[in-house]
Each structure stands twice: as C-alpha cells, then as structure tokens.
Design a protein that fits this description.
The chain is mainly alpha-helical. It contains 5 helices and 2 strands.
C-alpha cells in the first residue's frame, strides 16, 4: 500500500515539475493512474526488459531508462482511453518524468516504509 501511495505521489510531483506531463482529473483519478502505472510496470516492464537485455547490457543500463519512458507513455495512453485526465506529451517528458517518478517513489518508500519491510 505504501508503494502504491508513493507512486501516486510521485506521479503528482511529475505533473508539477515536468513540462509535458499533466493531470487534469481528480485525486481519485490520479490513484487510478498510479494503479495503471503499477500494472503496466509489473506486466509489460519485465517482458520488455527481458527482450531488450542485450541492448541494456551494451548501454550499461541506460536503455532501461528508455523502456521506463515507454511504459509511462503506455500508461498515459491507457489513462487517456479511460478518461482519467493524465497525459504525457512526448518521449522527453516521459524520460524525465520516469526518472523523477522513480527517484521520488523510492525516497518516499524509504522514508515511510514500515519496519516490516526492512531486513536487518
């Protein structure tokens, strides 16, 4: 649950800081976008990363950023089809947004994660 809320907060931060990423819907709609983003990352992300593994290795992991940007664009397309008010206006906003979303959500999970999640 913390990861889900952290993703929703990170998506909101991206809409505020990255030109080309916008959300015009309600807070509930943003939670829907976070759910879509999580499902897309869980189902489509590993498949894309598996098939592009040689390119990821050759680019020392930088191509994974491209894949994450494409997953954010896919999330935007699905959210648009569902009228959730979330859109990404191109590849570079998606690239910057995906990096920002990753950093913000990781920080939020690190700060607010439960002690049960931490292994000593």
């Amino acid at each position: 649950m913390i990861r889900f809320l952290a993703t929703a907060a990170a998506l909101w931060v991206a809409t505020q800081l990255v030109p080309g990423i916008a959300h015009t819907g309600s807070a509930l709609a943003l939670l829907g976008v976070a759910l879509i983003f999580g499902v897309v990352n869980a189902l489509v992300g590993p498949v894309l990363k598996l098939f592009s593994l040689p390119v990821i290795v050759l680019t020392l992991g930088l191509f994974a950023l491209v894949i994450n940007a494409l997953l954010l664009i896919l999330t935007s397309w699905i959210a648009t089809q569902l009228s959730l008010g979330f859109r990404v206006d191109g590849f570079f906003p998606a690239l910057f947004g995906s990096v920002l979303i990753s950093v913000v959500s990781a920080l939020l999970v690190a700060v607010f994660g439960s002690s049960d999640d931490k292994k000593d």
